[in-house]
Amino acid sequence: MDNFCSSAELMEILKTLKIFACGTINPTRRELPDFQRDKEVKQGGFDCYVSNNGVYTVKWKDKRCVHLISNYHQPNEVTKFNRKTKIGVIQEIPCPTILSDYNANINSVGKLDPLKSYY
Description:
Layout: H1 8-16, E1 22-24, E2 46-50, E3 56-61, E4 65-70, E5 78-84, E6 90-96, H2 97-118
Antiparallel strand pairs: 1-4, 2-3, 3-4, 5-6
């Protein structure tokens, strides 16, 4: 899901229906917890919160902060990816698996919009 559709309440409802989902979320949503300030989070760092209902929200920073929400990921699941620095050195940056799952599956949603324009 993209940030226009996702909310903590929707994720709770989908989880009770056994529909698993993840996506970005608008950081101004009122049901989100208070995360660290953007300047306090370093590149590759993240701040996470798990609600009583099992909804996982995370704030992750690469160049900018990204807010994500999921009803099936676990907070201790972390992957790594390579990022080239300004001086050309490749370094591994930790990344929550929720982001890699989101990036892997959002392309199919992104392809739908141009296909709709043809019709």
